[in-house]
Each structure stands twice: as C-alpha cells, then as structure tokens.
Design brief:
Bound molecules: adenosine-5'-diphosphate
CATH topology: Alpha-Beta Plaits
Number of strands: 4
CATH class: Alpha Beta
Number of helices: 7
CATH superfamily: Nucleoside diphosphate kinase-like domain
Shape: globular
Helix content: 25-40%
Strand content: 15-25%
C-alpha cells in the first residue's frame, strides 16, 4: 500500500469545499491515515516549493499559501500517488477536465484547490515534512 500527501489549499478551506474533496478521494477507496489543519509558514513553503523558487510569481504563491489555514491529509491506497494526481487534474484549473477536482472546483493556475505528491520520493519527503510519525495511523 502506498501513501500520498494531499494539501487542501486556502481556497478550498475558505470556500467550504474540504468535505467535497475528501468525499471524492474516499469514494475511490482511499483511506485517510492522517489529517490536520495547519497555518503554513514561509520556511516550510520555501522547502515544499523549492522547485518554484526562481519563478517570478513565487512570492504570490507564498502569499496565497499563507492566506488561510490548509488541511494536510495522508491518504493510503493501491497506487494512490498516481491515482490522486489523475483525480485532481493538471495545475491550471481552467485546462483541467470536468470531473477532476481542479476542473470542477478550481479557479486558475494558483487557486487550484489541492496539492498532491507527484512521485514516491516526493510522497515520502512530504509525509516527513507535514506529519510527525505519531500523527499517522498504521
Ligand atoms: P502542481 O501543484 O500541479 O504539482 P507545481 O508543482 O508546478 O504544480 O506548482 C505548485 C503550485 O504553484 C501550483 O499548484 C500552483 O498553486 C502554483 N503555480 C504553479 N505554476 C503557476 C503559475 N504559472 N501561475 C501561478 N501559480 C502557479
């Protein structure tokens, strides 16, 4: 069984869409093994989004991700990493297909409702970044 990390971003939390998004993941048979609300700080975000640090819109992303609390989820299931990426759709919500989380609920490239780990290596790094081992169910 794999685990992946999903972040329900500030737009998701502020629009009251957490239940709708979690329902979609649970509906696919994935189990919530960790769940907590967090107010992210700049140091954690610079680590999490290190691959974007040189881009001109990086300060906007830092601001958006700190504009309200997020919910961090650890989801478990068979091939959950790729399947969750497929369920959320591409980064740009306006290009995401109907039926995907971002296609149905996202606004644009930045306000796109969710983050999800994109590989086994990033899932492991993000489990460590967002959760203490004691916060994850077996
Ligand atoms: P993903 O979240 O789909 O894995 P990236 O890792 O490339 O995408 O980007 C991380 C986040 O940074 C995106 O989810 C989005 O919120 C923001 N972002 C990425 N590219 C852009 C862009 N061109 N304009 C505004 N925000 C962006």
């Amino acid at each position: 069984m794999e685990k992946t990390v999903v972040l329900l971003k500030p737009d998701c939390v502020q629009k009251g869409l957490m239940g709708e998004v979690i329902k979609r993941f649970e509906g696919e048979g994935f189990l919530v093994k960790g769940c907590k609300m967090m107010q992210l700080d700049e140091a954690l975000l610079r680590d999490h989004y290190a691959h974007l640090a040189d881009l001109p819109f990086f300060p906007e992303i830092l601001g958006f991700m700190q504009s309200a609390p997020i919910m961090a989820l650890a989801l478990e299931g068979d091939e959950v990493i790729q399947k969750v990426r497929d369920l959320i759709g591409p980064t740009d919500s306006t290009k995401a297909d109907p039926g995907t989380v971002r296609g149905d609920l996202g606004e644009d490239k930045m306000r796109n409702v969710v983050h999800a780990s994109d590989s086994a290596a990033s899932a492991q790094a993000e489990l460590n970044r967002f959760f203490d081992p004691s916060e994850l169910l077996q």
